[in-house]
């Protein structure tokens, strides 16, 4: 298996996987989405809320604010042996919020008003709106962020986009091609060219495999296919962790699961052998 990184900037990572299969690639995708742990606000201790926003809506909004996560410094709360998922220093962290609209002015409460006990843990953006306060209104609360996984709730999923597609290739019967250029005109990405009746992809990474070019060919000369075992993988995170961190953690999780499966298989095989004796 080979991996070629073709884009890595901001929170976006795009790479080509060669010599694999869709089962593994889809397993990697699902692991990144649902298994890579992050921090998200789970519990709220609401001291005062005189805003027009209901307590439940404040709590819901806070839960959906992505928090930067030092991924190896915390244990997943549901797996924490120190507190049995109740929340402790090993799986959770406290943030406070205290905002008041003084005088006769209204005031918008933003994510920047959430104050963390740890400088490494903070909202990914300062401009996420939480509530709008009227004159004299106030919100005071303590929020408990816990480590969790996307399979428990989407707020713990680290990704915005995580997908893969087949690496495209042109399958053509050159003897049937008339050079009419119908396929080129039909391509929405303008990435096909015809030279001496041979159709080529000028930029395979942009091909959608939409088959519009195939359908446009009146002579049944062109069929778009894919390179067996090659995939284009796209990963974009919310900013809670970098794409490289999410990818690395997912591979560690897959490796651990494979090892656990191997151990359980050996135990089951030993039990079966003893029964046969």
Per-chain topology:
Blueprint lengths: L1 E8 L2 E7 L3 H13 L3 E12 L5 H9 L28 E9 L6 E4 L4 E2 L12 E5 L4 E11 L10 E14 L9 H5 L5 E4 L2 E4 L10 H5 L5 E16 L5 H34 L1
Antiparallel strand pairs: 1-2, 2-12, 3-8, 4-6, 4-8, 5-7, 9-12, 10-11
Helix pairs in contact: 1-5
Description:
The protein is of the alpha+beta class and 277 residues long. It folds into 2 domains: 2-34 and 160-236, RNA polymerase, RBP11-like subunit (Gyrase A, domain 2), CATH 3.30.1360; 39-156, RNA Polymerase Alpha Subunit, Chain A, domain 2 (Beta Complex). Helix content is 24%, strand content 35%. The chain is built from 5 helices and 12 strands. The protein has helices spanning 22-34, 55-63, 182-186, 212-216, 243-276, and strands at 2-9, 12-18, 38-49, 92-100, 107-110, 115-116, 129-133, 138-148, 159-172, 192-195, 198-201, 222-237. A 4-stranded antiparallel beta sheet has the order 1-2-12-9. A 4-stranded antiparallel beta sheet has the order 3-8-4-6, covered by helices on one side. A hairpin with a 2-residue loop joins strand 1 (2-9) and strand 2. The longest helix is centred in the last third of the chain and has 34 residues, at 243-276. The radius of gyration is 26 Å and the shape is flat. The two termini are 42 Å apart. The mean pLDDT is 94.
